[in-house]
């Protein structure tokens, strides 16, 4: 998450530079544009920030105007191209993810704007409204809201084969490989508490009982059920855990901000106090507050990560990791690389002179 904090700002500068003519920007304009983006920089800080990442941003003097400009390095441009190609290549998977996301809605529709905001998390391309929705009329249709001007994505047909949750595959694997009792694994979740988390005897018993508690599937319509009883409320709470688990499983990096989960709260019958609710299930989810001065909360699916890396990486995740590698690469290495290039150019000039 420490790297993620830097990457968020780097990506915003990415977009800023690529939106400019010739994909370059004068250093003198950085302060003004950074304030418009709301990046939280003080005066002269944006330029200093860019200089920290010489493998991503290149500062150079304009040959005619004699003022400093900034552009993306070749490595950064290659990373952007690799990520775009990875996103386009997995559009069929993105279609399936979006179908499953809408099937989790209690109305069979989701606001287009909410999906657009979380587009990156679900691995959708920038033009997903055309390339994913309008291009697949057999799966989706865009409709206008009855009382508002909002657009909604509605699913055309519910395919029951898509109703199988990710946790069900995990349970099947646990049952086949570890020989766990069928009743113990039937409604259970993988629980891995953080280091130092003290588990009392009574808490362990409570977790065991909760693991065996039946619940309704996130893809099941519960509108006709009587939810007033205490038993129904317990099942509804566990269903909310299953919904968030499935939502995270549909993201390409198995993580999403709490604020974006909140966009789907009403259509998925999730609790109002989401942060407090997730903290009650620390063995399943991990919440990080490292971002935007503690105001941004990122929710991770614990079982999907091991030692800070995704257990089952995909091409989009790997492409994004390349940006993290560029951000973490030592500035000293960029200086050495530049000196080697200059040395090599000088060596070639000497060879030309001797000829």
Automatic annotation (TrEMBL):
Residues 1-331 form the PORR domain. It comes from the Eukaryota. Pfam families: PORR (PF11955). One of its GO terms (molecular function) is RNA binding. InterPro entries: PORR_domain (IPR021099), PORR_fam (IPR045040). PANTHER family: PROTEIN ROOT PRIMORDIUM DEFECTIVE 1 (PTHR31476:SF9), PROTEIN WHAT'S THIS FACTOR 1 HOMOLOG, CHLOROPLASTIC (PTHR31476). This is PORR domain-containing protein. It comes from Brassica campestris (Field mustard). The lineage of its organism: Eukaryota, Viridiplantae, Streptophyta, Embryophyta, Tracheophyta.
């Amino acid at each position: 998450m420490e790297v993620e904090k830097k990457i968020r700002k780097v990506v915003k500068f990415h977009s800023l530079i690529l939106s400019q003519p010739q994909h370059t920007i004068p250093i003198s304009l950085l302060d003004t544009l950074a304030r418009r983006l709301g990046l939280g920089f003080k005066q002269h800080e944006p330029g200093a920030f860019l200089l920290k990442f010489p493998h991503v941003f290149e500062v150079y003097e304009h040959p005619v105007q004699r003022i400093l400009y900034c552009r993306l390095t070749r490595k950064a441009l290659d990373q952007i191209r690799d990520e775009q190609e990875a996103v386009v290549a997995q559009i069929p998977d993105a279609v399936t993810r979006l179908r499953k996301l809408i099937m989790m809605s209690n109305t069979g529709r989701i606001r287009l704007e909410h999906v657009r905001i979380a587009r990156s998390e679900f691995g959708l391309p920038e033009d997903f409204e055309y390339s994913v929705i309008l291009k697949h009329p057999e799966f989706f249709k865009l409709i206008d809201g009855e009382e508002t001007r909002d657009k909604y994505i509605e699913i055309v047909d519910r395919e029951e084969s898509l109703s199988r949750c990710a946790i069900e595959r995990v349970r099947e694997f646990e049952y086949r490989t570890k020989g766990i009792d069928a009743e113990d694994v039937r409604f259970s979740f993988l629980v891995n508490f953080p280091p130092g988390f003290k588990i009392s005897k009574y808490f362990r018993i409570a977790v065991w009982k909760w693991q065996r508690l039946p619940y309704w599937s996130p893809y099941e319509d519960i509108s006709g059920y009587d939810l007033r009883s205490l038993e129904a409320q317990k099942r509804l709470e566990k269903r909310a855990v299953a919904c968030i688990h499935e939502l995270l499983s549909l993201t390409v990096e198995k993580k999403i901000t709490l604020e974006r989960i909140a966009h789907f709260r009403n259509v998925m019958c999730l609790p109002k106090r989401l942060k407090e609710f997730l903290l009650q299930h620390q063995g399943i989810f991990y919440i990080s507050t490292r971002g935007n001065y503690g105001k941004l909360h990122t929710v991770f699916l614990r079982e999907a990560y091991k030692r800070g890396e995704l257990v089952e990486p995909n091409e989009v995740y790997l492409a994004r990791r390349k940006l993290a590698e560029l951000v973490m690469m030592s500035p000293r290495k960029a200086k050495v690389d530049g000196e080697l290039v200059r040395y090599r150019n000088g060596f070639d000039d000497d060879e030309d002179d001797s000829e």
